[in-house]
């Protein structure tokens, strides 16, 4: 099986250093268990994805593009030439606009189906098919069997990436894609940028338009379902058990009792 | 008379034969050492200093066990003297001089006495830390050689060499003597040959010059292979040093990971390295790695050493806290920590197989310059409300305060606040790097990620080059060791002082006037990276004495203190064991009945504070001193 | 900014008392203001409630703050009696919200998206909810119109659904379309965006009628733009709609049959099976309900049976893991796993600081411990000071009885 991994120029959220986005590193790990894999990057500098060479990728193709160019047509052209069975990408970028739209645009351009948020991949029983496990959150999964080629994005719950190995990074190869890739200018979104300001999360249970006192109550857990703060000192064990089960059912983590027939 | 004449030739001839056999066996062994890579060795210098290294440095370590020291002096001295004297008797004037044989008999007699001392350690029951196997027959061989030699020499001295006793005694001596010589290849006597050569060609000659030569050697990142994967990746004199191991087990007694039941035994580790390059090595007969792992793994100079199925399990490798307790205790001057780091370097740099939990911190260190991935500017957040000037304002200061990773920790922030207030109190002109301070890279280096360490070292050296300061003061012994001993290889030579040393200076200069706190009972826990790595054990104690606390010492203290478990990336690797190292250390502290365990290191603070149900309080020296200074107002 | 603008006219309309003569409007001012607010106190009634019966002179028990005899205001009864539904007859424009409808119901996040749509719609616009299948509660969540998408809610065909949504939107020509930024909603929004060749403003964390705000570059900056056609709304970013219910009138949409892809299905997907999380094997960090044992639990077999019956994920304190009684990967705490569970049931755990760090993210904590002063008891929403060894069999007994199998009680 041949797997292509889309690599983006990530930035570390704290230090701003050029890093390989975590999800793409996880994608490399998924691909390593499947077969021959190759990285693909479209952008001005290949050095920004060199870190991937130390995380289990031996070979990267680099399509040189000007800074402001849209990477999607170039990626689609390279992928059409590579003809992989599976294209992996992170569900979102890291350090850029983080819209998560590029894999969709690439899939649309190639006419491939897209399966989002996978955490595991395995070849299917039938040739040319794949089992892709999608994360549905909280450990639940959806196993999609699909006929390739397919684009899949990787979810953070996928297995952790390989550790960076300097020696492997030294040996990896970045190969420039030859052939004229006409740069298409990317659509410039009309956005105004300013430093990030942390917003308070909505407090659950606080009614909209409520007073400050009510919001405080909700935030400190004095209201709502967790509010009870009930304390039973030396209760009868059976009574305590009833209390616990009732509480668990109120929270909704325990199913209601079956009707006794 | 013929019998006597022949015996005066045959007996010395036996010793010469022993010497020849030993030489053959040693040279067979030397062929194995040559599998290693080249190393530059100052041969003449080493040879010239051999007696001093043996008699002073080795003896200093051996003498910690008085019995072993006496035993070794008697048996080794007697053996050497008796053998040399006998060998010289090949010269006819000596061989025919009867009183000379009295002297020889006396030497053999001493050897015999020493042999019994050796035997007493192993029979009827072997001491726990010693290895069995071939070591168990050592006293038998020694006794045979010594008794046979004594009787033969006595016969030569007082006549009766024609009798039936002479051939019997000679045969006994020959059996023992040749047995000992034969053991030079695989058995206990190897330590004598390899040990002597190891002292000459020691990879860290600085150890014998009275300075702590403890810095890890920088790795050439352009080398074709990084770190050690197979025995042949080690330098030849390292292989030689592992052969010097006499399996005395002092390292396993000192090792905190072994005590905690983590799968590490330094003796077994060294013996596994030996078995790795010596295909016909007899089976290991000492205490195993805790956890009862049975895998043997392939042998040979090109067989992989580390792996779930190889000789050494990765968990063994990552259990080491790099505390150097084993190195400190080793009478053969073996450098266990260098071996561990060399093996780790290959695992990390070439295979990327760090322990799962260590990947995050090392990745963050590489990407952000902090193992927690926190913003560098947040390092000074602990000092909210304190005047903590960044050095970039004036560009110079008398003292550059290196905060280290502990500054991010809430608990350790208290210590640093105390230190900053003490510096203010004493009117010290100090500044911090602030957001320009990156981690020293200590964690990455101990975990084998030399590439990240070197990148951080170069960045920090470049930053420090922009400012003028007289000395660096830090409360973190790990940072101190890295800055003081390991940065010079990257062009950064600084005077680095631990905060306890600076505080002692300030007290002695009268700039800090602490009151006395006689009501406190304190025991001081030495940080490995201060005491063992840098030999600084006195300043913290002097500070404690200056504030008049009631100070008790733990059984293991000073350079022989036990690790808290916080070094070498062990907390992030978190290899499971049966117990926890800090719990053991706090139990030792509890034996002193001290109410306070004084610490001088952020790692120790964090590890010891994390012990559940501890009775004693954990206080840094700076916090105690601040309390005393405030009490003295 | 996220607080909805008050609409006094609508509020008054909601409390208007229907009268027969129609001479002048009458309002019931005693009703609680829609959207919450502090309940109005009635000191006189409270005082009356504190009165102690006695013959001679008035006596009050001031320590008693219990609600007065008669309710201060009879708001729930009145509100349900006269639910006034707000209608928008001819909206100037439509704002479409596309909820996930996981399990056929509006989730809290879905309601927030509807709340966001309400903000963008303002007074002139109308909020239309574009939902698959039936479902209820759209009106109270703020929807003026309901567009029912004829799609199989259980089938997994996101591309096909996106095509049908895009076709519907093309026919509807709304001003804005909002999706929740969830796994499914975010996926759908990006598919629709690519299909409609429209930019998507993803993961909006701030919203006002004039602008949307989203974080970018690892939350180092934020981007602000006027609301475009497509946007997704981050969770817990916008308040739910809290005004009076709206009508959620069914709005039929004529989709041009020739519309590209309106009926297509993704041929490549051969099957899609939902595999629910197995609480016994799900990674601890993802588990929804964790039951953990500490030093106070000595009978671990009972503990394991209880965990299995509760369908919880087993956890343990450091002491048990160190002792080898529980596997290392079950360790909860700073040096083990940091949980994100909805509920944490701590049996016999006192709550060392490192352990509490591991449960800091849990919404609800239930603790059973013998020590009244244990930190875990302090942290818990339901704290039982009792021996966990006694509680566990009691729980098993009760659960066994509920299952109609008294034999399980042993």
> What ranges of chain A have pLDDT less than 50 throughout 5 or more consecutive residues?
222-227
Q: Which geometry of chain B do the CA atoms define?
A: elongated
Q: Major sheet of chain A: order of its strands?
A: 9-8-7-10-6-1-4-5-11
SSE sequence of chain A, one letter per element: EEEHEEHEHEEEEHEEHEH
CATH class of the largest domain in chain A equals Alpha Beta
The share of residues in extended strands of chain B comes to 5-15%
Count of the separate structural domains of chain B: 4
> What's the rounded overall pLDDT mean of chain A?
86
Number of helices of chain B: 27
Give the biggest beta sheet of chain A: 9 strands, mixed
> What is the number of beta strands of chain A?
13
| Strand neighbour order, sheet with most strands of chain B | 2-1-3-4
Radius of gyration of chain B: 28 Å
Region (Disordered) (chain C): 1-53
GO biological process, one term (chain C): fatty acid beta-oxidation using acyl-CoA dehydrogenase
Domain Electron transfer flavoprotein alpha/beta-subunit N-terminal (chain C): 95-263
Pfam families (chain C): ETF (PF01012), ETF_alpha (PF00766)
Write the layout of secondary structure elements.
The complex is a heterotrimer of chains A (261), B (633) and C (410).
Chain A: E1 2-6, E2 10-11, E3 18-19, H1 22-32, E4 36-43, E5 59-64, H2 71-82, E6 86-90, H3 102-110, E7 114-123, E8 129-135, E9 141-147, E10 150-154, H4 166-171, E11 173-176, E12 192-195, H5 212-219, E13 230-233, H6 237-251
Parallel strand pairs in A: 1-4, 1-6, 4-5, 5-11, 6-10, 7-10
Antiparallel strand pairs in A: 2-3, 7-8, 8-9
Helix pairs in contact in A: 2-3
Chain B: H1 2-33, H2 43-62, H3 66-88, H4 92-95, H5 98-122, H6 138-158, H7 165-186, H8 190-200, H9 236-243, H10 250-254, H11 256-259, H12 266-277, H13 314-319, H14 325-329, H15 336-350, H16 356-368, E1 396-402, H17 410-425, E2 430-432, H18 442-446, H19 450-465, E3 468-474, H20 477-486, E4 496-498, H21 499-508, E5 521-524, H22 528-534, H23 538-546, E6 550-552, H24 570-573, H25 581-590, E7 596-599, H26 602-609, E8 617-620, H27 621-631
Parallel strand pairs in B: 1-2, 1-3, 3-4, 5-6, 5-7, 7-8
Helix pairs in contact in B: 1-3, 1-7, 3-5, 5-6, 6-7, 7-8, 8-9, 17-27, 20-22, 21-23
Chain C: H1 8-14, E1 16-17, E2 26-27, H2 43-50, E3 51-52, E4 59-60, H3 75-81, E5 94-97, H4 108-121, E6 126-132, E7 145-149, H5 158-172, E8 176-180, H6 183-196, E9 200-204, E10 206-208, E11 211-216, E12 221-225, E13 230-233, E14 249-250, E15 269-275, E16 289-293, H7 300-310, E17 313-316, H8 318-322, E18 343-347, H9 353-358, E19 364-369, H10 375-379, E20 382-385, H11 388-402
Parallel strand pairs in C: 5-6, 5-8, 6-7, 7-14, 8-13, 9-13, 16-17, 16-18, 18-19, 19-20
Antiparallel strand pairs in C: 1-2, 3-4, 10-11, 11-12
Helix pairs in contact in C: 5-6, 7-11
């Amino acid at each position: 099986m041949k797997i292509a991994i889309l690599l983006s120029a990530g930035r570390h959220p704290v230090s701003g250093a050029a890093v390989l986005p975590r999800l793409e590193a996880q994608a490399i790990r998924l691909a390593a268990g499947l077969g021959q894999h190759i990285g693909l990057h479209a952008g001005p500098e290949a050095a920004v994805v060199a870190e991937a060479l130390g995380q289990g990728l031996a070979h990267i193709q680099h399509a040189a593009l000007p800074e402001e160019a849209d990477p999607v047509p170039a990626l689609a052209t390279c992928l059409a030439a590579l003809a992989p069975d599976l294209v992996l990408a992170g569900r979102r970028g890291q350090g850029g606009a983080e819209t998560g739209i590029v894999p969709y645009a690439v899939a649309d351009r190639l006419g491939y189906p897209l399966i989002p948020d996978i955490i595991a991949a395995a070849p299917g029983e039938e040739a040319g098919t794949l089992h892709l496990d999608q994360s549905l959150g909280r450990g639940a999964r959806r196993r999609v069997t699909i006929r390739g080629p397919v684009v899949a994005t990787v979810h953070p719950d996928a297995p952790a990436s390989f550790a960076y190995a300097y020696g492997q990074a030294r040996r990896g190869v970045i190969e420039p894609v030859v052939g004229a890739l006409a740069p298409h200018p990317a659509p410039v979104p009309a956005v105004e940028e300013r430093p990030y300001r942390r917003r308070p999360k909505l407090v659950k249970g606080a009614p909209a338009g409520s007073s400050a006192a009510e919001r405080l109550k909700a935030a400190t857990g004095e209201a709502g379902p967790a509010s009870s703060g009930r304390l039973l000192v030396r209760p009868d064990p059976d009574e305590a058990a009833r209390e616990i089960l009732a509480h668990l059912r109120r929270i909704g983590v325990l199913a209601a009792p079956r009707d006794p027939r | 008379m013929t019998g006597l004449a022949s015996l005066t030739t045959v007996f010395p001839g036996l010793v010469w034969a022993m010497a020849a056999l030993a030489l053959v066996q040693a040279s067979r062994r030397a062929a194995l050492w040559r599998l290693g890579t080249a190393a530059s060795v100052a041969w003449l210098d080493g040879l010239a200093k051999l007696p001093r290294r043996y008699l002073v440095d080795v003896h200093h370590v051996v003498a910690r066990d008085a019995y072993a020291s006496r035993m070794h002096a008697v048996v080794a001295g007697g053996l050497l003297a008796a053998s040399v004297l006998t060998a010289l008797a090949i010269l006819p004037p000596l061989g025919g001089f009867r009183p000379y044989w009295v002297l020889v008999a006396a030497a053999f007699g001493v050897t015999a006495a020493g042999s019994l001392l050796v035997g007493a350690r192993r029979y009827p029951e072997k001491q726990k830390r010693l290895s069995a196997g071939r070591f168990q027959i050592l006293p038998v061989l020694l006794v045979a050689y010594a008794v046979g030699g004594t009787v033969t020499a006595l016969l030569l001295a007082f006549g009766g060499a024609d009798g039936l006793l002479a051939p019997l005694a000679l045969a006994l001596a020959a059996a023992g003597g040749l047995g000992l010589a034969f053991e030079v290849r695989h058995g206990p006597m190897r330590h004598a040959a390899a040990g002597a050569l190891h002292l000459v060609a020691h990879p860290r000659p600085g150890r014998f010059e009275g300075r702590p030569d403890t810095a890890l050697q920088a790795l050439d990142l352009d080398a074709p292979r990084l770190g050690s994967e197979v025995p042949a990746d080690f330098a030849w004199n390292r292989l030689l040093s592992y052969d010097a191991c006499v399996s005395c087990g002092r390292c396993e007694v000192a090792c905190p990971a072994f005590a905690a039941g983590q799968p590490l035994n330094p003796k077994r580790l060294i013996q596994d390295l030996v078995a790795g390059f010596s295909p016909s090595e007899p089976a290991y007969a000492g205490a195993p790695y805790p956890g009862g792992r049975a895998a043997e793994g392939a042998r040979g100079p090109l067989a992989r050493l580390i792996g779930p199925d190889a000789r050494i399990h990765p968990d063994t490798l990552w259990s080491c806290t790099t505390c150097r307790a084993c190195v400190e205790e080793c009478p053969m001057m073996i450098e266990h920590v260098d071996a561990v780091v060399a093996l780790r370097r290959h695992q990390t740099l070439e295979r990327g197989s760090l322990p799962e939990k260590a990947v995050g911190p090392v990745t963050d260190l590489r990407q952000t310059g902090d193992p927690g991935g926190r913003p560098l500017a947040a390092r000074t957040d602990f000092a909210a409300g304190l005047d903590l000037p960044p050095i970039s304002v004036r560009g110079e200061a008398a003292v550059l305060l290196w905060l280290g990773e502990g500054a991010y920790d809430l608990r350790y922030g208290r210590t640093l606040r105390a230190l900053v207030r003490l510096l203010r109190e004493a009117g010290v002109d100090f500044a911090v790097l602030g957001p320009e301070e990156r981690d020293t890279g200590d964690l990455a280096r101990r975990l084998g990620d030399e590439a990240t360490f070197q990148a951080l070292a170069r960045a920090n050296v470049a930053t420090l080059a922009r400012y003028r300061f007289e000395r660096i003061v830090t409360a973190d012994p790990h940072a101190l060791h890295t800055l003081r001993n390991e940065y010079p290889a990257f062009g950064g030579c600084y005077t680095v002082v631990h905060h306890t040393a600076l505080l002692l200076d300030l007290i002695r200069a009268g700039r800090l006037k602490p009151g006395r706190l006689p009501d406190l009972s304190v025991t001081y826990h030495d940080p490995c990276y201060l005491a063992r790595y840098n030999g600084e054990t006195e300043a913290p104690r002097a500070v404690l004495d200056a504030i008049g606390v009631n100070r008790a010492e733990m059984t293991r203290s000073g350079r022989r203190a036990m690790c808290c478990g916080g070094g070498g990336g062990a907390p992030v690797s978190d290899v499971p064991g049966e117990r926890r190292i800090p719990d053991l250390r706090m139990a030792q502290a509890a034996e002193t009945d001290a109410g306070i365990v004084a610490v001088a290191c952020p790692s120790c603070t964090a590890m010891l504070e994390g012990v559940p149900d501890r009775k004693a309080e954990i206080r840094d020296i700076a916090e105690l001193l601040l309390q005393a200074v405030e009490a003295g107002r | 900014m996220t607080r909805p603008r008050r609409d006094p006219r609508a509020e008054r309309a909601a409390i208007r008392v229907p009268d027969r003569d129609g001479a002048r409007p009458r309002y019931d001012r005693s009703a609680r203001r829609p959207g919450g607010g502090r309940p109005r106190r009635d000191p006189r009634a409270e005082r009356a409630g504190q009165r102690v019966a006695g013959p001679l002179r008035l006596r009050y028990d001031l320590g008693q703050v219990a609600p007065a005899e008669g309710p201060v205001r009879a708001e729930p009864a009145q509100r349900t009696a006269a639910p006034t539904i707000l209608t928008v007859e001819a909206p100037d424009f439509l704002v479409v919200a596309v909820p996930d409808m996981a399990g056929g119901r509006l989730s809290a996040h879905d309601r927030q998206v509807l709340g966001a749509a309400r903000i963008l719609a303002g007074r002139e616009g109308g909020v239309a909810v574009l939902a698959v299948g039936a479902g209820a509660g759209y009106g109270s969540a703020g929807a003026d119109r309901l567009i029912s998408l004829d799609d199989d809610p259980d089938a997994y065909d996101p591309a096909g659904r996106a095509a049908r949504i895009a076709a519907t939107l093309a026919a509807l020509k709304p001003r804005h379309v909002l999706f929740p930024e969830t796994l499914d909603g975010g996926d759908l929004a990006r598919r629709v965006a690519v299909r409609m060749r429209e930019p998507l403003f993803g993961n909006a964390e701030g919203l006002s009628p004039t602008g949307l705000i989203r974080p970018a570059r690892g939350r180092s900056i934020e981007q602000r733009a006027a609301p475009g056609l497509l946007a997704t709304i981050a969770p817990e970013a916008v308040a739910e709609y809290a005004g009076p219910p709206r009508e959620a009138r069914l709005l039929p949409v004529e989709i041009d049959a020739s519309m590209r892809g309106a009926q297509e299905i993704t041929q490549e997907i051969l099957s899609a099976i939902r595999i629910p999380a197995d609480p016994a094997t799900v990674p601890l960090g993802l588990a929804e309900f964790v039951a953990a044992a500490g030093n106070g639990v000595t009978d671990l077999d009972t503990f394991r049976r209880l965990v299995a019956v509760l369908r919880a994920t087993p956890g343990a304190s450091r002491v048990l893991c160190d002792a080898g009684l529980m596997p290392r990967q079950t360790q909860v705490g700073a040096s083990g796993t940091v949980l994100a569970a909805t509920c944490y049931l701590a049996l016999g755990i006192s709550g060392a600081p490192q352990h509490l760090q591991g449960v800091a993210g849990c919404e609800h904590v239930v603790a059973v411990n013998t020590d009244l002063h244990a930190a875990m008891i302090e942290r818990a929403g339901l704290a039982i000071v009792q021996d966990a060894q006694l509680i566990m069999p009691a729980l098993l007994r009760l659960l066994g009885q509920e299952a109609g199998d008294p034999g399980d009680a042993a």
